[in-house]
Design brief:
With about 140 residues, the chain is of the alpha+beta class. It is built from four helices and six strands. Strand 2 and strand 3 form a beta hairpin. The longest helix is centred in the N-terminal third of the chain and has 11 residues. The mean pLDDT is about 95.
Length: about 140
């Protein structure tokens, strides 16, 4: 079920929700050789602000480039990255395991593919340390 489990740091950037924001941000990260490994984004209820959360292969360099390009509201948070077999039921099993141990999933996002490769799920939980222990024992 679980192929790999690691602790990671996620970057969260609060931005204006406007046309081209994601394209500009990804362009300057790519221009500096930074690979985005997982990403999610959403806007607030007013549609005026957006939040982009992502994991890269070099968060220190990413944060420096974000600051150099005028982004002010940047936060780095602890998350868990769980690599699962890409088949029906694996996410159900992981979420049930966390729930049965009293661990709330605050949010998650994932990557998948259709050609038999693994699915990676990024979790932020009510207790990442306990979640890591529970999932590591599974």
């Amino acid at each position: 079920m679980i192929k790999n489990l690691v602790r990671a740091k996620e970057i969260s950037v609060l931005t204006k929700n406007e046309i081209g924001t994601l394209a500009r941000m990804m362009s300057f990260l790519i221009d500096h050789g930074i690979n985005v490994e997982a990403i999610a984004g959403y806007s607030d209820q007013t549609g005026m602000q957006g939040n982009i959360v992502f994991i890269t292969d070099d968060n220190q360099k990413s944060i420096a480039e974000l600051i150099n390009n005028g982004y002010e509201y940047i936060e780095e948070r602890d998350v868990l990255v769980v690599e699962l077999e890409n088949r029906p039921g694996t996410l159900k099993n992981v979420s049930e395991l966390l729930a049965s141990n009293g661990i709330n999933i605050e949010y998650f996002y994932c990557t998948t593919c259709s050609s038999g490769c693994s699915a990676k799920i990024v979790f932020a939980t009510s207790d990442n340390d306990e979640a890591f222990q529970v999932l590591n024992a599974a």
